[in-house]
Write a structure and sequence with these properties.
Two copies of one chain form a homodimer.
Chain A lengths: L3 H14 E15 L2 E10 L2 E3 L2 E5 L4 H13 L5 E8 L6 H8 L14 E8 L15 E6 L10 H15 L14 E2 H12 L5 H10 L3 E7 L9 E5 L1 H10 L6
Parallel strand pairs in A: 1-6
Antiparallel strand pairs in A: 1-2, 1-4, 2-3, 2-7, 5-6, 8-10, 9-10
The first copy, chain A, binds a DNA duplex through helix 6.
DNA sequence: ACAAAAGTGTTTGATATACACCCATGT
DNA sequence: ACATGGGTGTATATCAAACACTTTTGT
């Protein structure tokens, strides 16, 4: 926890640089060892938050989200998807309460009501170097199944992000941003199974995935593991991007 | 156009009551005589805008959207769907320019940079009584094909709303909010064709629509028209709502 | 040699597409 | 009577689901 002086300086800086009443919260998804992970900040003992931040006064929203995530992950050019604005007038009260005994209301940045713009991000787990922000003491990956309870409405934000991601899975390719450059079909399947939280048929998955035409199979196979060596695949970026904009399913 | 005094009063009221930097813009879709219509405001000669407004300081976003639309349409309980936040720092400059010669910057509400939360609304055309807001001189329906060019980024907002609506059509029922209580299958098909901007097969449309189980066929038929009398249908609200939350297509 | 993981293929049912036919009504 | 729009039905292709067999590799 910052000292009162530090907090005052933080609030003064925020008032000077950021738009009031507006924040961004990011649900950063990574995939590692068959588990879906989310980046979570620890402010103090038992206080967990999604990574977030504010908009500079003349900054585009997506730029701000990128900036915030660069600070938390070290990564540029993260795949980001805006998914919802959370604006319950009560949603940030908890944050205000937390600082109201320390800071005079006029000085307290968190006296503001905040609408928060939710983004979800898909990143390659291996590339991320989690770093806490000014207000927190650590930044860590948590498996989806072992998440602590989050403060404010951050659990709701996370669940909405998950729902949105699952929905997107139905008409968009997902995976390029979550997988390493090369991966095997079973590994990709595991990603889908993790996101959807259900088992898929190995053979049907492969057929369907290949039918999208967004994968290139390498000559190479993943050696070293026990059992038969699986082929390595990489995404075909051109087709992948085309599929991202055009979508998969016809619908009507 | 308001007088300077009126504008000053408007701005003072806005500063007092609304959150700064945040607005709401609504794309109100109605369907009439086989044409998709959108509500558009006329501020002055050749200046067209989507209906919009601001958030009261302690007002939930959706409540604000409802309030704004009640003022424009006379309707309560409108079907609303938040679909995107538009936040380009340049997006509201045009609005500022418009008033800068009349109002001192410090007084001018539109000096603010605004992020706008986009909602689309689906309403029964017949129920709407379009009413202009304080800043405009008229509020009218325009067919999608005969829309004037809109100011600010409102054309982009409208197009994004349309894209979202089309997407939703693929996994959600649409129509309850756009159609009168009773309607014929060809009428409903016309709605779909209008939204998608393409022809559908009469017989396949009917089969598919019925397969969703969200329609009740009435004993009655629409008499009076030329040709064979079509059956009247109404939405089965329970199933409709269930389909809204659960969606249609399996996907994975 | 065998267990476990991976590649490939087949059978079956469901769903979508493209049509054809009949019926009712106003002119 | 006939043109037009509306109700219903069928053949075919296409796709998804369920399932079987073979191949490879480490133990």
């Amino acid at each position: 926890m910052l000292s009162k002086e530090e907090l005052l300086a933080y609030c003064a800086g925020a008032r000077k640089n950021y738009l009031p009443h507006i924040s961004i919260d990011c649900v950063v998804f990574g995939f590692h060892e068959g588990v879906m992970k989310v980046l979570v900040l620890n402010v103090e003992e038992g206080e967990w938050y999604l990574p977030g931040g504010f908009l500079l006064k003349e900054e585009p929203i997506e730029t701000a989200a990128n900036r915030i995530l660069k600070e938390r992950t070290g990564l540029d050019d993260i795949f980001l998807q805006q998914f919802y604005v959370f604006g319950d007038p009560e949603r940030s009260k908890e944050h205000f309460e937390m600082y109201k005994d320390i800071l005079p209301a006029g000085e307290n940045w968190f006296t503001n009501r905040f609408l928060t713009i939710g983004y979800y991000a898909l990143v390659d787990f291996q590339d991320v170097n989690p770093m806490p922000d000014e207000l927190s003491i650590s930044c860590n990956w948590f498996g989806l199944k072992e998440l602590p309870e989050l403060k404010l409405d951050h659990t709701q934000i996370l669940n909405t992000a998950l729902d949105t991601l699952r929905l997107h899975l139905n008409y968009q390719p997902v995976g390029y941003n979550l997988m390493p450059k090369e991966f095997t079909m079973p590994e990709l399947q595991k990603l889908y199974e993790t996101i959807l939280d259900k088992k898929l048929d190995r053979r049907n998955f492969q057929r369907r995935m290949l039918s999208f035409g967004i994968l290139n199979r390498s000559e190479q196979q993943r050696k070293g593991g026990a059992h038969k060596a699986p082929y390595l695949y990489a995404f075909n970026i051109e087709n992948y991007k085309a599929a991202l904009t055009e979508g998969f399913k016809g619908g009507w």
